[in-house]
């Protein structure tokens, strides 16, 4: 007995479904972009060929497909998880002769193998079942199973034939294995309603090692275009049908094929004599092994050649089939086939890897995210008319489709400044159920959204399919670049219910910050804040809009003792939230030290410096009020830049500093909140001799020197400092501005990345502001 070889975690997968399904990133991309893709079985690796031929053949077949621009989707079960698309290391492990306990997995075996956590190679039937569930319409294999000789007594008929009769996936093969009863196999295929067509200039049905079996196929197809047309037609009938494309081994191997066929007949006689023919699924592997021994290796060589030939034909057909898919408008009769592309998520919260019942697929391939962003993900459709709009007619113009949504924008902006796969967006996308099945499929806008996220380097494992809802979208009509009318369809975000929010956070160990926009319902926001408070995870809230700001107010009122970590309003949102807090009895005494008289308690020089940059006293007053509900306020002021306010509980130092190098970058102001006439101002943050406020020309001059980038440290008490840090806007001329939409979201993403960077605030904020400038020069929501 060989030693059991455990599987190493795969490293290139991208999404999982209920812990049972893992798609490679390559496969996920092909499905979401409707690119050519071909399914491949894995029994040939685990049971069909000896090592190392099994590995080299698997790699060769995948290489042939890729060289033609077709994505190979090798399917296997690894430790109870269905994998579609295998890495080279997974193929190596699956082909390892020391790997024990692997099983052949047909349709009947799927549930048992998954539930028991076993590893196995999928047969033709098993591969078709899985491929169909994902909308993969073409499958390449060596040869199909069939009716075994003597089946009139043993009733030994391959499950492949039954699957071909009920699972509409086109199969490219070299006919049935010659160890089978081919005429009876053809009869069963006819009974099952399978469209059998020979590929080439004859309608001879091939017999695996031989280009002819002595029997005819009902149909004959001569080229890839005709084959694709037949497959496409069968798949788009009201009740989709299977096409079995029988490809003969190249004629150059005819002589060798005849010699191998003689070995087949000998092996069959031996199987009857030894009683092997009555052992069910053990028969085929035994016969193939024996034929290999009798033929001196010729059978194995021909097996490799015919599979490689099938792959070449399959690639050509896949390319033509893909053209038909893209060129023909999807209609009601074809929806069962086309809309399955790119679907893998279920209508449940995203599953995470590791123990405790979490999804094992995702963590094996992507690192755990350090950032979670909850919020809207949408598709923006912008129509710009080139002339004045007229009623009841179309107008020439330009239509642009781009990804949007506040949460999605923030996630992309943060990911742009963080290591790969650091940010997981948790959002909802639309889905439906395939007719006559229980398979969930992502809607068309959802597929576009996924594709765009992948293209921009964003992981998609946090997108949750919601059956019966539409992926969020916003359609805008512009005339001369001004908005005329628009329609927003954003209700799907309300499907991020409290239980899904809680689950997503609790199942993401190691997350360092949770950000959210206010498209979420108040009850979901409350659940998010309570969970983060329990797990001591910092939070960041982006108010999103004036109307949505009310969601935060309602949530905070339910949690009078909770403080956000970060809040990033713009000036209009600031006014709404601050006004509510001013009236709220819950927060009057939250931070009593902040009940300041600005003219009395804040040095005039500070207020004047801020005012020169557009931050008047009322804005400062409103921002201070927000510190009763959050530890940090990041105020987005558009052309004014960014104003960061926070409280520092570090005790005041009384040690004199000998250095004055910080004068030009940091202003520190110490005040006694009870004094109306004096303040102590020091460039290095330490006490100096008191000066009268009226005698401050030198301080004012120095403040003016740094009025575009200032930091003020105001001592509220001996143990409490108010820090106000102003960051200037990006350097960009009016003529360079393409759009300001998304600038605020880009800034928030930059703040998130900066908070995790370990750099000084001024350093990372410079990077964040640079990205804002890039967005303003771009048509995209995030540049």
TrEMBL record:
Listed Low complexity bias regions: 342-353
Domain Carbohydrate kinase PfkB: start-end pairs: 370-582, 729-767
GO-annotated molecular function: hydrolase activity, acting on glycosyl bonds; kinase activity; metal ion binding; pseudouridylate synthase activity
Region (Disordered): 340-366, 385-404, 677-701
SUPFAM superfamilies, per the entry: Indigoidine synthase A-like, Ribokinase-like
Pfam families (UniProt xref): Indigoidine_A, PfkB
PROSITE patterns xrefs: PFKB_KINASES_2
GO cellular component: cytoplasm
Biased composition (Polar residues): 677-691
Compositional bias of kind Basic and acidic residues: 692-701
Protein name, as recorded: Carbohydrate kinase PfkB domain-containing protein
């Amino acid at each position: 007995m060989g030693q059991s070889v455990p599987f190493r975690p795969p490293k290139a997968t991208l999404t999982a479904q209920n812990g049972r399904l893992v798609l490679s990133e390559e496969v996920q991309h092909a499905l979401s972009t409707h690119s050519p893709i071909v399914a491949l079985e894995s029994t040939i690796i685990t049971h069909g060929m000896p090592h190392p031929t099994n590995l080299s053949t698997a790699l060769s077949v995948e290489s042939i497909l890729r060289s033609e621009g077709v994505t190979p989707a090798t399917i296997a079960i690894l430790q109870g998880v269905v994998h579609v698309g295998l890495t080279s290391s997974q193929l190596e492990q699956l082909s390892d002769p020391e790997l024990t306990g692997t099983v052949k997995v047909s349709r009947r075996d799927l549930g048992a193998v998954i539930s028991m956590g076993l590893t196995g190679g999928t047969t033709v039937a098993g591969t078709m079942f899985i491929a169909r569930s994902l909308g993969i319409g073409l499958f390449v294999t060596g040869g199909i199973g069939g009716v075994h000789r003597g089946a009139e007594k043993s009733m030994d008929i391959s499950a492949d034939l039954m699957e071909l009769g009920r699972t509409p996936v086109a199969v490219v093969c070299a006919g049935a294995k010659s160890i089978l009863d081919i005429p009876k196999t053809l009869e069963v295929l006819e009974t099952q309603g399978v469209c059998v067509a020979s590929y080439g200039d004859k309608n001879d049905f091939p017999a695996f090692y031989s280009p002819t079996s002595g029997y005819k196929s009902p149909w004959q197809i001569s080229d890839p275009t005709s084959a694709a047309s037949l497959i496409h037609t069968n798949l788009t009938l009201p009740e989709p049908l299977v096409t079995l494309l029988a490809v003969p081994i190249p004629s150059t191997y005819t002589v060798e094929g005849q010699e191998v066929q003689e070995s087949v007949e000998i092996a069959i006689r031996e199987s009857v004599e030894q009683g092997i023919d009555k052992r069910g699924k053990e028969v085929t592997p035994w016969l193939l092994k024996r034929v290999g021994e009798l033929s001196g290796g010729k059978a194995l060589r021909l097996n490799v050649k015919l599979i490689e030939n099938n792959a070449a034909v399959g690639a050509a057909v896949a390319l033509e089939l893909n053209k038909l898919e893209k060129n023909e408008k999807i209609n009601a009769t074809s929806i069962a086939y086309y809309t399955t592309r790119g679907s893998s998520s279920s209508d449940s919260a995203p599953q995470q890897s590791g123990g405790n019942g979490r999804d094992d697929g995702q963590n094996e391939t992507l690192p755990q995210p350090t950032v979670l962003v909850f919020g809207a993900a949408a598709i923006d459709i912008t129509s710009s008319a080139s002339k004045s709009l007229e009623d009841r007619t179309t107008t020439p113009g330009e239509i642009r489709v781009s990804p949007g949504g506040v949460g999605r924008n923030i996630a992309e902006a943060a990911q742009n400044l963080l290591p790969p796969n650091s940010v997981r967006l948790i959002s909802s996308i639309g889905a439906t159920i395939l007719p006559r099945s229980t398979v969930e499929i992502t809607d068309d806008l959802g597929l576009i959204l996924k594709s765009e996220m992948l293209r921009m380097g964003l992981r998609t494992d946090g997108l949750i399919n919601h059956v019966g809802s539409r992926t969020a979208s916003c359609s805008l009509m512009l005339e001369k670049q001004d908005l005329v009318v628009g329609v927003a369809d954003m209700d799907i975000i309300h499907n991020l219910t409290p239980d899904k929010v809680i689950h997503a956070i609790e199942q993401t160990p190691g997350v360092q910050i949770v950000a959210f926009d206010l498209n979420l319902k108040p009850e979901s926001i409350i659940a998010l804040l309570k969970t983060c408070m329990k797990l001591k995870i910092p939070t960041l809230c982006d108010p999103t809009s004036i109307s949505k700001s009310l969601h935060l107010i309602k949530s905070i009122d339910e949690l009078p003792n909770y403080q956000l970590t970060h809040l990033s309003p713009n000036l209009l949102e600031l006014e709404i939230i601050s006004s509510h807090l001013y009236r709220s009895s819950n927060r009057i005494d939250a931070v009593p030290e902040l009940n300041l008289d600005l003219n009395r308690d804040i040095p005039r020089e500070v207020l004047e410096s801020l005012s020169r940059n557009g931050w008047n006293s009322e804005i400062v007053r409103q921002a201070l009020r927000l510190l009763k509900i959050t530890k940090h306020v990041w105020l987005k002021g558009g052309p004014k830049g960014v104003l960061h306010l926070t409280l520092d509980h570090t005790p005041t130092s009384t040690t004199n500093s000998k250095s004055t190098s910080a004068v030009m970058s940091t202003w520190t102001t110490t005040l006694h909140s009870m004094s109306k006439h004096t303040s102590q101002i020091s460039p290095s943050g330490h006490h100096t001799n008191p000066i009268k406020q009226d005698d401050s020309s030198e301080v004012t001059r120095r403040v003016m020197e740094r009025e575009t980038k200032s930091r003020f440290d105001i001592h509220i008490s001996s143990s409490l400092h108010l820090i106000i840090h102003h960051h200037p806007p990006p350097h960009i001329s009016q003529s360079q501005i393409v759009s300001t939409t998304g600038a605020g979201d880009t800034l928030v993403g930059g703040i998130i990345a900066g908070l995790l960077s370990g750099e000084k605030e001024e350093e990372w904020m410079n990077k964040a502001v640079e990205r804002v400038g890039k967005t303003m020069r771009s048509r995209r929501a995030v540049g």
